[in-house]
Amino acid sequence: MNSVGIPGADWLQGHADVVWATSKLMPAVTGNTIDSSGWNQHPQGARIVEVTSQLDGPVNTLKKRLTTLIDAQMPELASLIAHDQAVSVSYSDRYLKSPWSQMLLSGFWELLRSDQLQSLAVQTLAPSGSQPSYLLSHDWICVDDQAAILELWLKSQFDIAPSITVMHSPRDLLHCRVITVNWASGKISKILLDQGMGYWRGRTPYRDQMNFDFNAQHHDQAMQMIEKYSYAQMQQSGEWPTYISCVVT
Length: 249
Known about the structure:
This protein has 249 residues and is α+β, with helices and mostly antiparallel strands. It is 24% helix and 22% strand. It is built from 5 helices and 10 strands; from the N terminus they run E-E-H-H-E-H-E-H-E-E-E-E-H-E-E. Helix 4 links the parallel strand 4 (119-125) and strand 5. The protein is elongated.
């Protein structure tokens, strides 16, 4: 058989077992160097800490255990707490609906108390349940009670009138639970709590001390919380961990 590459009867006639190859001179491609040194870097001061039983104990001494945890695993935040001053603190959580969750929040916020602290703010969702509530960990049924007692409680703990915003639709509030801190230096910290206050259940020396009178006047309900804050303990709800992360910018 004549070669298909030689002029003749079979010239340029293709066959199944013949592979054609050609080449063409292409113009040179020019490019610039890409700086990838900043790729896959975490934001400044980003930390993620796994928590199980490290914070278990009396709610009114939570600050001590938080300080130990942060000093060991969140040095950027520890430095701000030691050398800076929190000016404003806010917390966003859809599930801040019970006396117990509000007590826990003040335990976390105690870590951020400072002489320059001027503003406290909370964003949460209105309760949606209709079952009677009678335990410290149960939710308020009435949104007016929820907001009024949260305001009374935080003012009693920090001597600052907080801004309370209660949304009525989950679409209006992010699902993440985050404490945002503005510091006197201009830095901002965002402390994200994986499960918010919901990771810890409450315990008291005697079972009946977990009872809570939701029908009492607002002031009297706040006084119940103050009393129980003196002896209530927090304990992890299960064997699984929760996570606390912090970003400083």
